[in-house]
Each structure stands twice: as C-alpha cells, then as structure tokens.
Amino acid sequence: MSHTPFGYRIENGKAVIDIEVAEQIKTLFHSYLSGDSLATAAEKAGIKSFHAGIGRMLRNACYLGNEYYPAIIDPDTFASAEAERIKRAEKLGRIREPKEETAVVFPTAFYIKEASQQFDDPFQQAEYAYSLIEIEVQEDGSQ
C-alpha cells in the first residue's frame, strides 16, 4: 500500500477518517464547485499544499470509498468536481487531444533481380542489394 491519502489515518491496520481533516476535504470540494480556484479553495479549507497537490486531491477516487478507505465525498460531488475541472481546463485550452496516427503500410514482399556482383565492403553490398529491388508488393497484393 502506498502512502495514506490526506484525510485518513491508520489505526490497528485499518484506514479511518480523520474527522477534522475530512471536513477540510469537504470544504475544498464545495469551495471548488462554488467557483473558487484551486489555491483559493485550499486556502478556505485550511489546506496548505501546492496547486498540483490540490488538483490530485480533487481527482483521488479514495475519497469515494473502497474496500480499504471509507468514503469522505459522495459520488455526485466527486463527479461534479471532475466535470468542473474538465470544463475549466477546456476553457483555458489545457485539454490535449491525442493526434490520430495514420497507419503506415510497409511492403511485405519484394521482387528482386538476380545479384551478379559481390563487394568486400558490407555497406556497398547492402546498397547494391537494395538497388536490385524492382517492385515492392503490399500485404494485400497491390504494388
């Protein structure tokens, strides 16, 4: 198990909610949803962390609860915060869509002339061998 998320503590081998800190987490989510920036929402919640750390808190699914961590945030609030985060990122142009890669079809067969020369230099021999290629045939049989 990695480190314990903010808002929990370990007692007798089980994660339990730290009540005071859990209230800070709830305040953070509600402040962010009310329109505050990450830094302002964290300040209102009394959380001292960097911008990226606050952003990770808003995306941490442990706050929804799982087999180890009890829930601090309800699923609707969590989903609303994620939707708000995406909306703000899109507005600022920070959503990067992956570029669609074009499929490159490489030839899978060659028609080659009979070799008639032999070179001592392997680079010259390779250049000569490539010069003998007459037609490249694609996998589907086209040229």
Describe this structure in words.
By secondary structure, the protein is α+β, with helices and mostly antiparallel strands. The protein folds into 2 domains: 8-91, Alpha-Beta Complex (Hect, E3 ligase catalytic domain fold), CATH 3.90.1750; 100-143, no CATH class. The chain contains 5 helices and 4 strands; from the N terminus they run ββααααβαβ. The strands form 2 sheets. The chain has a two-stranded antiparallel sheet with strand order 1-2. Helix 1 (19-33) packs antiparallel against helix 2 and helix 1 packs across helix 4. The longest helix is centred in the middle third of the chain and has 17 residues, at 75-91. It is elongated and about 85 Å long. The mean pLDDT is 88.
Task: Kindly summarize this structure in a few lines.
With 143 residues, the chain is an alpha+beta fold. It has helices at 19-33, 38-45, 51-59, 75-91, 122-131; strands at 8-11, 14-17, 109-112, 133-137.
